[in-house]
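S.,

Sequence below, as promised.
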Amino acid sequence: MRVLVACEFSGIVREAFASLGHDAWSCDLLPTEQEGNHLQGDVISVLRDGWDLMVAHPPCTFLANSGVRWLYGGKGKVIDENRWREMELSSNFFKALLNAPIKRKAIENPIMHMHAKKIIGREYSQIIQPYQFGHGETKATCLWLENLLPLKPTRIVEDRVARVHKEPPSPERWKNRSRTFKGIAEAMAQQWGTYL
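The prediction came back faster than expected:
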C-alpha cells in the first residue's frame, strides 16, 4: 500500500507502516528526524500522487481549543486580527487535507475550538488517548476518519500522567508535544495497513 504521512517530521508513523512492508512516505516542510522515505516541502503538491492512505498531522497551534483565548486580545473580546487570519489559514489547510483525493484518510488534531470547527465543517470521528496504546500519558487526540474503522485500543495503561502538558518552555517544546506516540503509530499501521 502507498501511504502518505502528511505533516510529519519525526518519521514515527511512516516507519510503523514501512516496518510492515508498505511504501510509506512522510512529507513536511522540515527534514525528517530519522532516515527513511521523506518528501521535504508542501504536502499539497503531492496529494494527487496516487496514495492509497493518508495519515495527516496538520499544525494545531491556531485550531486547538486550548489556544482559543489567544484569538482575543486586549480587554474584552477584541479579536486579534493576525491570529484570526492564521486560524482561518490553518482551518483551510486542514479542510484541504480532508478533501484530498485519497480514498482512505485519517487526520489528527487536538480538540478544536468552535471557530475552526465552523470553517472545517465536519466533526471528528473518534477521540483516542496514548494510555489506550501502551503509554501512561493523557493527551486527547481527535481523528477525522474517511473509509477507515476507528482505532481499537491495544494496551490500556492504568497509571497516567499529563507529561505533554507539563513540557517546559523551550524552542523544542512544540516538536516534543507534536510527535506521535509509538504505540498509536503501530496501531495505525497494524489496523489500517490491512485495507488493501
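Residues 117 and 123 are 7 Å apart (CA to CA).

Coffee later?
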